[in-house]
Write a structure and sequence with these properties.
The structure holds 2 protein chains of 2 kinds. In chain A, 47% of the residues lie in helices and 15% in strands. By secondary structure, chain A is an alpha/beta fold. Chain A has 2 domains: 137 residues, no CATH class; 275 residues, Rossmann fold. A 10-stranded mixed β-sheet of chain A has the order 5-4-1-2-10-9-3-8-7-6, with helices on both faces. In chain A, a hairpin with a 2-residue loop joins strand 4 and strand 5. In chain A, helix 4 packs antiparallel against helix 5 and helix 10 packs parallel to helix 12. Chain A is globular, with a radius of gyration of 28 Å. The termini of chain A are far apart. By secondary structure, chain B is an all-alpha fold. Chain B has 2 domains: 255 residues, no CATH class; 44 residues, no CATH class. In chain B, 66% of the residues lie in helices and 2% in strands. A two-stranded antiparallel ribbon of chain B has the order 1-2. In chain B, helix 3 packs across helix 9 and helix 9 packs antiparallel against helix 13. Chain B is elongated. Chain B starts with a strand and ends in an 8-residue tail after the last helix. The chains are: A alpha/beta, B mainly alpha. Chains A and B meet through helix 10 of A and strand 1, helix 1 and helix 4 of B.
């Protein structure tokens, strides 16, 4: 065995120069631990956080270590097939590493507002332009690019005074009882909060609007309620624990996703019939099933042309077919994610009127909609979900539409959403304020009810 | 079983769900024009058979080439039948799984549906072979009739390839990825079949996990490869016939003598007897073993398909 000193020295030299270059720009990029720049692998993870290019930097970080180990092991492995294979592997990895580094460098140029001609310098020696940017006082990151923020999003819920969970709703055995303590995900070792402290009871025979800006956690909340993605929570549907008894409770839940997920090359009647056969209990006779299908088709105005192919139907009809597939099973809890998206006002209102009928039959209907004002009169309650300043979804309001208008001091639901949206999204950035206000409001309501 | 308001509720089990989905897929055969795989398969089989079919089951070289081409047709047909069937409706499967669909039922329905497709394709391919005049041995090796042996081999080979593609379709998330992966699998199957390309070392071991290897072994065994004449030696000698030795052409004289006295066929048969392959032995055990290997592969692929699709709920929205 013979050590290939040339390889070792080359690798170490490259590591030293590139690390020094990263160290030089770390201050300008706001690294919390500048010494990360010297640690193979970790230096790219730190860079990724600071320039909000996590995927590329993560890949580069892994490659960084693999490349270093590969190059070093090659130097101690005797010549032969293994050595040749290692050389080839290192070469391929190096090419990958190089391409990803170019992408990262372009992002750095964007952050510092520099022209792409700098890339030529990077191609000659990738550490050189970074050193120049790092030590050159004239090179400063642009103010309009926020880097650390996106990495930190959700890692720390905003500390809003008075919102500690001292008064969660008592779980009810009637209707839908939701008590979500937190919904978190682990992302590369970091715990991210998606939802926090959401507690409410929805009575049967209610039609509820779920409102919130983009990224507020509406879909996450729905997934948590339906048991698709479990949270640290208790969710009871008429006394049954959705999480614990999921296999049985799932048959009592209907969820209409945002997209029309059904096979276009099947007829409408067969699509709904199959859904009924799959989801209705065994003891339902063929006659009862047919009668239920006919009833749903009639309710949703799909009876005419039900023998036609799904793909031949209009947008409004497709939404209704998607709703019919779930409704045919008579769910106790019926959740719809944007059933009105892409539909004109008249058709949307028609669909919501049908949903109102469904709720009036004793079910709970929860609807996510981005254009609720045209149908708000049909809803009993509104859930407003807001993303706090730590970018965690929290409950900002739960009550009737009238109460919501008074609470937020706004005339329309869309204005309510704008008031809690962030300022950089064109909103008023009052999410934290409203979350705090609702906590006080809910506590006051509870005290009033108790006395 | 669900207990609701004192009433016990049972929902459709796996077998019933399989039936529902099988009916659905059979409707798709018409609505989604899945029937198109039959004429396409027929055209591919016809092109291949008319090019290499004349000497299949007639000479060893023709059988080598012909069975390899036929296995290629089977693998191609199988791959194209199912490479996109699951990934193109992955979101729908996710929705239905959440609503109570058993993944095993869904995959089982696909397996049954694909079996019907493969059966139809096998019948079409056999018809093409018959029309092209391919001389399939009348006497069977495993079954009483050779055509039945050939049919079963074509069916299992196509079906195993179909199941491999189904597995890929369950693993990948988009049709683009599926269609990118497919050519690599196809090339892998063809190169590592071990029948047409000489393999050595590790590559020679890899052939045991290829569908094409077992399919080709089976077809060669059914075609009584080891009893067939070999023509390449004769053709090589004919190529050297004009070599002169002491002003004469002895090789040409020998070849003319052999041909004029009717010894040519005996020579071909004799040379064939020195070019046998143990994997192509025409016994019921050997054919059965090859079929069993294909069945094992297809069961593994189907199981992997189910396992892969079980994770469909983890797909990001």
């Amino acid at each position: 065995m013979q050590l290939h000193w040339t390889t070792i020295v080359t690798v170490l030299f490259e590591w030293l120069l590139f690390s020094a270059a990263l160290r030089s720009i770390s201050g300008k990029l706001g690294w919390k631990k500048p010494w990360d720049a010297w640690i193979p692998g970790l230096r790219f993870f730190a860079l990724g956080r600071s320039i909000a290019l996590n995927r590329e930097c993560r890949f580069c970080g892994i490659m960084d270590v693999v490349f270093l180990l590969g190059a070093l092991s090659k130097s101690v492995v005797p010549k032969g097939r293994v050595n040749a294979a290692l050389s080839l592997t290192v070469l391929i990895l190096f090419l990958y590493l190089f391409l990803y580094r170019i992408r990262i460098f372009l992002r750095i140029l964007e952050i510092f507002g520099l022209r792409k001609q700098w890339l030529l310098l990077f191609l000659i020696a990738n550490w050189l332009p970074l050193l120049l940017i790092g030590f050159g006082k004239q090179y400063q990151p642009r103010d309009d690019i926020q880097m650390e923020e996106s990495w930190m999003a959700g890692t720390k819920p905003a500390q809003i005074p008075g919102t500690a969970r001292s008064h969660p709703e008592a779980l009810s055995s009637e209707g839908l009882s939701i008590n979500i303590r937190e919904r978190t995900v682990k992302e590369y070792g970091k715990k991210r909060y998606l939802l926090k402290d959401i507690s409410l009871n929805i009575p049967n025979q209610s039609m509820v609007l779920l409102l919130g800006g983009s990224g507020a956690g509406k879909t996450t909340l729905i997934n948590a309620i339906l048991g698709y993605e479990k949270a640290d929570a208790s969710v009871l549907l008429n006394g049954s624990d959705v999480y614990r008894d999921y296999d049985s409770v799932k048959h009592r839940i209907g969820f209409v996703p945002q997209k029309n997920l059904m096979r276009g090359k099947d007829s409408v009647i067969r699509t709904i019939d199959d859904a009924a056969q799959m989801r209705l209990p065994k003891n339902i006779t063929k006659e009862e099933s047919s009668s239920k299908i006919a009833e749903v088709l009639d309710l949703l105005g799909l009876s005419a042309g039900s023998e036609g192919l799904v793909e031949k139907k209009s947008g409004g009809q497709l939404r209704r077919i998607s709703i019919a597939m779930e409704l045919v099973t008579d769910p106790e809890l019926f959740v719809l994610d944007e059933p009105d998206s892409g539909l004109d006002g008249a058709i949307a209102r028609e669909i919501f009127r049908k949903l109102r009928q469904v709720a009036d039959e004793g079910r709970i209907v929860i609807v996510v909609s981005h254009t609720p004002d045209r149908v708000i009169d049909l809803f009993d309650k509104v859930i407003v979900l807001a993303r706090d300043s730590g970018r965690v979804g929290r409950l900002a309001f739960y009550g009737s539409p009238e109460e919501a208008r008074a609470f937020f001091g706004k005339e329309t639901m869309e204005d309510i959403v704008m008031s809690i949206n962030r300022e950089d999204e064109g909103g008023e950035g009052r999410a934290d304020e409203m979350i705090k206000k609702y906590t006080d409001f809910a506590a006051g309501q509870k005290e009033g009810a108790a006395s | 079983m669900t207990e609701i308001r004192g009433e016990s509720l049972r929902y459709k089990g796996r077998a019933a769900q399989t039936g529902i989905y099988l009916k659905k897929f059979l409707r798709m055969f018409v609505y989604q024009s899945d029937w198109k795989v039959l004429p396409i398969g027929a055209i591919i089989a016809a092109v291949v058979t008319f090019v290499v079919g004349a000497n299949m089951f007639v000479t060893q070289e023709g059988t080598d080439m012909g069975t390899f081409a036929l296995v290629c047709v089977c693998v191609w047909n199988g791959f194209f039948n199912s490479i996109q069937v699951v990934c193109r409706e992955r979101d729908i499967v996710k929705r239905e799984h959440r609503a109570g669909l058993h993944i095993t039922s869904y995959v089982a329905a696909h397996m049954l549906y694909q079996l019907i497709l493969c059966l139809l394709q096998t019948m079409v391919t056999l018809l093409i072979l018959k029309i092209a005049g391919v001389k399939i041995p009348v006497q069977g090796t495993f079954m009483p009739w050779g055509i039945l042996d050939a049919g079963i081999t074509i069916l299992i080979t196509t079906y195993a390839a179909d199941m491999m593609a189904l597995m890929v379709s369950c693993i990948v998330r988009t049709t683009t990825t599926a269609m990118t992966v497919m050519p690599f699998l196809l090339i892998f199957q063809l190169v590592f079949s071990g029948g047409f390309f000489q393999l050595s070392g590790i590559a020679d071991k890899v052939k045991y996990v290829t569908i094409s290897h077992w399919g080709m072994n089976s077809l060669c065994a059914i075609g009584r490869y080891n009893e067939l004449p070999m023509v390449s030696l004769w053709n090589t000698l004919v190529g050297f016939k004009d070599i002169e030795l002491f002003g004469k052409k002895p090789l040409k004289e020998i070849l003319v003598y052999t041909e004029q006295n009717g010894y040519r066929d005996a020579f071909l048969q004799w040379s064939g007897s020195y070019h046998t392959n143990n994997a192509y032995v025409s016994t019921a055990e050997n054919v059965g073993f090859n079929w069993a290997a294909l069945l094992v592969l297809l069961v593994i692929f189907a199981a992997a398909a189910v396992i892969a699709l079980k994770f469909v709920d983890r797909d990001k929205r």
